[in-house]
Amino acid sequence: MTTINTFDTIVAIATPIGTGGVGVIRISGDDSFYITKKIFYGQPIYPGQIAHGWIKDDDGNKIDEVIILAFAKPHSFTGEDVIEIQCHGGVNVLRNILDLILQNGARIADRGEFSKRAFLNNKIDLSRAEAVADLIHAKTQNFAKKSANNLSGALFHEIQELKKQLFISLSLIVASLDFPDDIRDPNYDLLKIEFNKLLKEIDRVLVCAKSSDILRQGIKVAIVGRPNVGKSSLFNKLLNVNRAIVTDVAGTTRDVLTETLDMDVAVTLIDTAGIRDTEDVGKVEGIGIEFSKQSARDADLILFIYDSASGLTKEDKEIYDLIKDKKHLIIANKCDLIEKRRDKKAIYISTLTGEGIDKLREKIKTNVYNFTNEETEFVINKRQEKCFSKARECLVRALEGIDRHELLDLISIDVRDTLAAFNEVIGESITEEILDNVFSNFCIGK
Ligand SMILES: Nc1nc2c(ncn2[C@@H]2O[C@H](COP(=O)(O)OP(=O)(O)OP(=O)(O)O)[C@@H](O)[C@H]2O)c(=O)[nH]1
Ligand SMILES: [Mg+2]
Question: Are residues 236 and 320 in the same domain?
Fold first, then answer.
């Protein structure tokens, strides 16, 4: 399917606003070349070639020395005429050039508008377009890798495979509907086997949607315990930097500290003030303790830590009671100070010697995101998950129809609905509203 869409010419600064060696401005649309030629003085601009020269304003003042990359439609990311201007990466340089382009007839691009055009011009399917945003916002190497797989079409190909499987059943059904005399009714048992196979595949993808969610958003892990048990020491140890103040004075940490680390999943580690009964209600320590309790409530996983040298005290147990209903790990710290390890449920560590820290890291991983080997190589977002769930529902209905030996016409409706749900994943037969929703999460310039 080739659709020719005509749009106005858009422009955006594609690099982050800040100072850098190079900044990039991107223009897309029919007037890209025309506008650029009005403000650029240098080598001639040819598609597929690089031109060097200067951007000048209407009075001939030099704005910046730049390089122009030109792409003629349809051989560009958006499928339109595209110009990329590489200038120096200063905020004002970029703004001045952007202003000139706007004055000459382009309009500022909406969020994700370049990717939206690429999709509308059939340069990429919707799953690839969504991957662009995922790749940009990836918080971990793992997620970036999987998003890159989506970008290269892994999810698209998965959908093609599923559709191929579904077509086999559908063509059997349709053939026997169209030529009832020539073709015997397809064997219901055969259809059932085919549908169940497909159902298994969909379920595998839906399992992966859960892990995708965790991969996309990351998890919050709060370190909670009595004062002086070594929370901040553990925080520093896991981060590998001395971020939090550590002293032997109970009540050292007052504010909640957070840092994010890449443990295949983005883990936001939270160091909290030691929880204890205090007269300081409404004052510094009291407020800190309230924050600690709040952090514990918000966390996906709690590292409950106590001092193994003093054993589990009454105060420790009170804190444990506060968090025990949430997902947690029990950590016995300062194991360098003890001889016997009696707590079977605890992970013994020493932030001083480093003992047990690697084991703890593993435990954090397996406790929060127990990914299986079945994991797919691509990621799934909420919208796509909904489509797969819809496909599943339709397929289950088709299977129920088969069990009741319903007429093939009726079963074929559910099969077609399954197909439509698959198509929605990659953006075939998708509504304008859904599209706007998808691209509104993008950043400007993509
Ligand atoms: N021997 C030994 N001492 C430790 C260990 N971990 C921490 N400490 C000491 O315990 C004391 C308290 O450590 P912190 O990390 O500040 O404890 P905290 O739980 O953050 O304390 P608050 O912020 O006051 O709640 C410091 O003197 C640390 O050096 C350990 O594994 N072994
Ligand atoms: Mg502390």
Answer: yes
The answer to whether residue 5 is domain-embedded is: no
Structural domain range at position 190: 144-215+381-427
- For ligand 1, atom 26, which residue shows the shortest CA distance? 248
Q: What residue type is assigned to position 52 of the chain?
A: H
The sign one gets for the Cα dihedral 131, 26, 77, 427 is positive
Q: Is residue 290 part of a domain?
A: yes
Q: What are phi and psi of 88, to 5 degrees?
A: -80, 150
CA distances from 108 to 10, 49, 56, 94 (A): 5, 25, 20, 13
Q: Measured in whole angstroms, how far is the alpha carbon of residue 216 from the centre of its chain?
A: 3
- The identity of residue 259, as a single letter, is E
The closest-lying atom of ligand 1 relative to the alpha carbon of residue 234 is: 15
- Confidence (pTM): 0.76
Please check whether residue 297 lies inside any domain of the structure.
Answer: yes
**pLDDT by residue (tens digit) across 258-301?**
999 888 888 999 999 888 876 666 667 777 778 888 888 899 99
Instruction: State the total domains in the chain.
Output: 3
